[in-house]
Amino acid sequence: MTADELPDLLESYATAIGPEADEIIEEMGAQARREGFPYVGPAVGGWLAMCARFADAERVFEFGSGFGYSAYWFARELPEDGEVVLTEIDADELDQAREYLDRGGLADRAAFEHGDAIETVEDYDGPFDVVLIDCQKERYAEAFEAVRDKVAPGGIVAADNAVAGGSIDAEQLRDYFESDGDAGSMDGMTRGIAEYVETVRGDEAFETTLLPLGEGVAVSQREH
After folding, report:
1. pTM of the predicted protein model
2. What angle do CA 71, 127, 119 make, to 5 degrees?
3. 133, 157 in Cβ contact below 8 A?
4. Rounded distance, CA 62 to CA 38, Å?
5. What's the pLDDT at 1?
6. Cα separation of 41 and 28, whole Å?
7. Comparing C-alpha atoms, which of 220, 201, 189 is closest to residue 38?
8. Residue 60's beta-bridge partner residues?
9. Would strands 83-88 and 128-133 be described as parallel, antiparallel, or unpaired?
10. How far apart are CA 28 and CA 216, in angstroms?
11. Residue 7 has what pLDDT?
12. C-beta separation of 217 from 210 below 8 A
């Protein structure tokens, strides 16, 4: 096996041994692939579900939800009185998310918010046990600052696209953090990820690591 083949093998392996998808998750994934819509995929989706279990989550907040793929994984793990807050600027996608969760019997565990996620979170009191950041990459750090004080002790913040997606340059990110490089040569998306990771790693209340599945997920836990 070559080094280039390893990521695909890990992705399929993680999918095979992770939490089992249901028919609706399969349908959502098929839609994403058919339309070329960016989504976390079943390996990361299953892992996010495990994060909710690890955190004994009752409340989840998503910065950017698309048509509800990750929210569906979360909602399956929540108690009946739990809540996942979906945020999306595209009203049609939010309607699709509502339909999918309703068909799965999970809509009563969801709040559907149309509009800017960073503005929306201001309307919610914490604590949140899990937060997913998957909005504009240039605004990741802003999203973290907006929700930081609403994350429960022991809670988890997961940021998608920490390695790839769009114009994100993984080599630039690695070199930046290995050698305290200059972010000036990065494009906006890459710089946004660098700023986010730098921000969350610089917060003494959080410990951060990288999940090398999908397009990379930066995972941070609030320790106090």
Report:
1. 0.96
2. 65
3. yes
4. 15
5. 66
6. 10
7. 189
8. 84, 130
9. unpaired
10. 20
11. 84
12. yes
Q: Is 129 exposed, middle or buried (0-12, 13-18, 19+ CB in 10 A)?
A: buried
Q: Which two tokens stand for residue 113?
A: 């918010």
Start-end of H helices in the chain? 6-17, 23-35, 41-54, 69-77, 91-103, 117-120, 140-147, 170-179, 188-201
Residue type, 29: G
C-beta neighbour count of 50 within 10 angstroms: 14
DSSP lists the bridge partners of residue 206 as: 222
Expressed in angstroms, the distance from the first to the final Cα of the chain is 43
Q: What is the mean pLDDT of residues 184-193?
A: 92
- In DSSP terms, 131 is beta-bridged to 61, 157
pLDDT in tens, 50-67: 999 999 999 999 999 999
Task: Give residue 6's pLDDT band: very low, low, confident or very high (50, 70, 90).
Answer: confident
